[in-house]
Amino acid sequence: PLKSLAEALKGKQGRFRQNLLGKRVDYSGRSVIVTDPKLKLHQCGLPKTMALELFKPFVMKRLVELGKVENIKGAKRAIDRSASFVWDILEEVIDGRLVLLNRAPTLHRLSIQAFEPVLVEGKAIHLHPLVCSPFNADFDGDQMSVHVPLSQQAQAEARVLMLSANNLRSPASGKPVNVPSQDMIIGVYYLTQVRDGLPGEGHVFASFDDALNAYDARTEVDLQAKIMVRVSAEQANVFTEDGRKLFRVMNGRGDAVDYDVTGSKTARFETSIGRIIFNQQCLPADYEFINYKMAKGDVSKLVADCCDRYPQAEVGPILDAIKYAGFHFATRAGLTISLWDALIPEDKPQILDIAQKRVDQINEYFEEGFINEQERHIEVVNEWTAATDTVAAKMLDMFDEENPIYMMADSGARGSKAQLRQLGGMRGLMADMSGETIDLPIKANFREGLLPLEYFISTYGARKGLVDTASHTSDSGYLTRRLVDVAQDVIVREEDCGTTEGVTYNLIIPGTDDINADLVGRCFIEDVVAPDGETLFHTDEYIESVADLQKMIDHGMKKVKLRALLTCRSKYGVCQKCYGWDLSTRRPVAIGTAVGIIAAQSIGEPGTQLTMRTIHSGGVAGVEDITQGLPTVGRMFDVVGNVNEKILGREADLAPYSGVLSIKPEKAEYIIQILDADDPTRILDERRVPASVRFMPGIEDGAEIRAGDQITKGFVNFRNLRKLTDIESTMHTFVESVKDVYTSQGVDLNDKHIEVIARQMLRRVQITNPGDSRYLLGQYVDRYEFADEVDRVARRGGTPPAAEPVILGTLKVASSIDSWLSSASFIRTAGVLTEAAIEGKVDHLLDLKSNVIVGKKIPAGTGLKPYANATLTYRTADGYVNIDGPTSPASKSLPDWAPSELKELDEQLPQQLDWTGYDEYGTGDGSFTRNGRTISAEDARLYLFDDLGVSQRWTNKFSEVGIETVGDLVGKSEEDLLRIDGIGAKAIEELRDGLEAHNLLYILDNTDDVADEEDLSQLLQMVFSPDGPDDILLGTSAPRHHFDSDEEMIGAPAEDSSKKDASSGIINEDMASLDELLNQLVDNDDHHPEEQED
């Protein structure tokens, strides 16, 4: 079918989303995944045949280099034949290289991670068990795709930023993501359990090694038997400032016992062989001795604690050790399940009889008209809920600790106590498709089997689950997409925006006794002075731990003023201080981090987990019954104007004025009045609400209230709230409302991410009176820009503009951004493009999507200007060596450790042209200087075809090698240009004419003072080839791998001594032939000038 122009652009299959924002890439593959417990955390198994196809060009190059084949064609043949030596070369080529693994749907940053490939037989990709949870992968047929980062910069970036062992924390909550589960948990649980009356109980051992030797020798000591062990100074794990050595034993969470082992002192304590194995094999020597049963929660806390205390490079091996121990002992223990392991309480029939009699009584009251239908339903539901709980409690009392089903639930490896109830107790009450509880309980459990009617009732829940899951996936994806569009230009662009405003936060979460741990990592805007006058913290310090928050609370503080995204004054993006810590690294966020994208991913990724409705808890009718979950979150971000009560429940009542509250019950409703605080007889506002509403904590008769305070629970209409109160209160209410939905579903999400989106929604005001300003009526303007404009107009004596505060929904924010390219790729493609064309809009390419669309590097991460001239380094025997010269990534200057003969030759070659200002090119500012002449940024942006008049055919050839503007000619001589395929004297002539017309000919001035030593330059390239594999054929200190910091990166391949000797042989041989060659050339120069003419 024919497509119109607009049709071809819009929608998911349109030009924008299909071709410009989504690209197909080479060097990629995809296959089914299987688990492989033998891998280390930073490794993945790559099928040999797939690896050969992915790394084919590298293998071919290496085959030719080593002389195994004559030319590229021969290399191709050898690979197609699968010659035996090809596999050895493949091993060598992938050594130290990384591949990226991705599992669709890519919901957040951790869905793409880098691994070191290990070649495996078969056709499936092998995945480390601990990275399943960030990928959300399981092994029921899931597939993953593999991508190869090609350039050295890409490899370095993948290793530093994307290696799985360097991504242990979730960017959404800062909690570890690679926590052991299932088999590993059951293994560790079994290993650390102790039981009474086992062989070897009461034995005393002189040391840990003694105990382990006794166990290995198969003497009569059981893994779980209680034994006594002696510890001495060697085992000390705590060292005090006064020089004492202690051995600290944790006998439970928070229950530590210290044994003094200073000098020759020793101590004895009770433990088991299993616990010794766990502590010795899995934990660092300076970690406290864990002496209690480890369930899933304990292992999670242990991993989180290790992440806090040790560098990431050390946490990977700890996780691998826990994984190994877990799998090993789960195999040794071998849990099995029988039907008879699900125990049924003996007095279940009596409990049900009593409940049934009470329910019959309630129904009788209803029939006689003493109670109405709603009250009957509530009473019946409460009765059956109580009966179900009683049966479940009796059943749990019957289990002993060795029962396999109980062990699974108790350890947290699989299932829960609620599921045990269904196996051996009774299934209880079910909800129908609208979430209403059916007051007919399922009295049977799965062991007894269900009656046909009971089975039918339970089909509601099962089908609803499947339908919800399917409909949720697309909704959740759409939510993420809207949020990305809203926040994609929020990038950390500077260290400090210099704001003097802050936002006040509660140290304790309102309505609870919990400390607000989400404040960890925020920055103080002013000195924190306690009520007693003591200065606790200084300006620009960060809250480093919950202990800092506790310190403020202990000093009697309830609130603290901090820097916040809402008040950040950065013109584009946000600043480092206002954002605070990066949750995944627990240090101040790096400049260049795309925090907006991270926020959108963190909010959108758990979207699929938010179930449609909370099952109505027995009888608590009323507000909690509103649809909790994705629809609510979606509508909050869209800022719906009129609240649909069927979908969102009752709208919350907000106080329209400040004053004193009066609440009077009357029949089936409450009368709420707001009275003037100065004159209690004056009623400012009066409304009636149904008796079923629930009031917010602290709302009672006679309470003082401020305009905008929420009186009743329900869905807050944020448009009304924004009109009634200040921007800070609106933000707090919005963040709390969204957070509540996530918390109620057990999802951990940091407030900071919701604040990023809230900032975007609250940052504009709507013009109500343009005055003498440049604004139009009804226009949305950034509030800081508006404040500056008011000042400007007032200074000139004009009428300043007026505006009202607004809160915009995601769709409105996304379509009102400055970039028309981004806007067009979101919604209303044709409309946005026509409007932009009519208004003559300019897109300054400040956000991510617009740069992706035009094919430029995104202005985030290493694409930011400050990082543009960072050079790659190699690690050598003498330390770090830059791989590239200082001027640009293309520079070929020799490294310091190159032999001096080579440097002398290098000096005779035509030198790279000396341009300053090179790195600034294309950034909209800066100029370029050479030979004392300056070329402006404006000239640098002249196009060869449009502005210089070079023919289209030559322009295309130039364009293929990346030369499109005058700026791209910087540093190129005519000889360089003539080497381009398809460019000859005619093309150069046209180019010179165009440059001459603009007085720019000096750009191509050739320094002809040095003869063109073609053969020398080829020789140098053969000897020193920076774009070869990591080996360089000069000097035995040649580096093999590059890292980005002095800290040993995890997953660095160990040096292979056999390879080392071999390579030095090659080098010596090469040096000899090289000397011979160089001598010939030098001799020719000195003694036989006439021969050279030939």
From TrEMBL:
It holds the Pfam family RNA_pol_Rpb1_4. Its EC number is 2.7.7.6. It is an enzyme of class 2 (transferase). Signal peptide: none annotated. It catalyses: RNA(n) + a ribonucleoside 5'-triphosphate = RNA(n+1) + diphosphate. SMART domains: RPOLA_N. Keywords: DNA-directed RNA polymerase, Metal-binding, Nucleotidyltransferase, Transcription, Transferase. Residues 1037-1069 are annotated as: Disordered. One of its GO terms (cellular component) is DNA-directed RNA polymerase complex. InterPro entries: DNA-dir_RpoC_beta_prime (IPR045867), DNA-dir_RpoC_beta_prime_bact (IPR012754), RNA_pol_asu (IPR000722), RNA_pol_N (IPR006592), RNA_pol_Rpb1_3 (IPR007066), RNA_pol_Rpb1_3_sf (IPR042102), RNA_pol_Rpb1_4 (IPR007083), RNA_pol_Rpb1_5 (IPR007081). Residues 1-192 form the RNA polymerase N-terminal domain. One of its GO terms (molecular function) is DNA-directed RNA polymerase activity. One of its GO terms (biological process) is DNA-templated transcription. Transmembrane segments: none annotated. Belongs to the RNA polymerase beta' chain family. DNA-dependent RNA polymerase catalyzes the transcription of DNA into RNA using the four ribonucleoside triphosphates as substrates. This is DNA-directed RNA polymerase. It comes from Collinsella ihumii.
